[in-house]
Amino acid sequence: MLPTALVMDVSRSNGISWDAIISCQMIGVYKPNPQAYHTAALWLGMAPENILMVACHNFDLNAAQDAGFKTAFVRRPDEWGPAGPPDPQPNRTYDYVCDDFDGLTAEVMDGK
Questions:
Q1: Cα separation of 98 and 104, whole Å?
Q2: Which residue segment(s) compose the domain that 30 sits in?
Q3: Quick check: 34 and 12 in contact, CB under 8 A?
């Protein structure tokens, strides 16, 4: 669970510009609580089916999918060090499954 200030600082230092940053810290409930996803959709003024949740954690994507979001599993094999992540493979059918963010961008832009 990342504090909002940390997300903003890391984004700025990496040249990433967002339309909005919504953190669970701001909402007051944490994923995978369904209220976190519902509140984010409400604050964005968007229907859940028009939002793509991108993560490398099945628990996160499963909860987002249950809330009606589209989902993208992006593998991050080094996230947990040499042993690898505890759940490196998708455990459901997600809208996108990619090895990296460039691959996700290509798939989304191709309309797959």
A1: 6
A2: 4-109
A3: no
What residues of the chain score a pLDDT lower than 70?
1, 112
Residues whose CB falls within 8 Å of the CB of residue 30, separated by 6 or more in sequence, listed in order:
1, 24, 36
Q: Which H or E run includes 42?
A: helix 34-44
For residues 57 and 80, the answer to whether their CB atoms sit within 8 Å is no
Helices 58-66 and 34-44: angle between axes, nearest 10 degrees: 60
* This prediction's pTM: 0.85
Q: What is the CATH number of the domain that holds 80?
A: 3.40.50.1000
For residues 63 and 19, give the distance between their C-alpha atoms in angstroms, rounded to a whole number: 23
Give the burial class of 86: count Cβ atoms within 10 A of its Cβ; 0-12 exposed, 13-18 middle, 19 or more buried: exposed
Structural domains of the chain, count: 1
How many Cβ atoms sit within 10 Å of the Cβ of residue 52? 14
CA gap 38, 46 in Å, rounded: 10
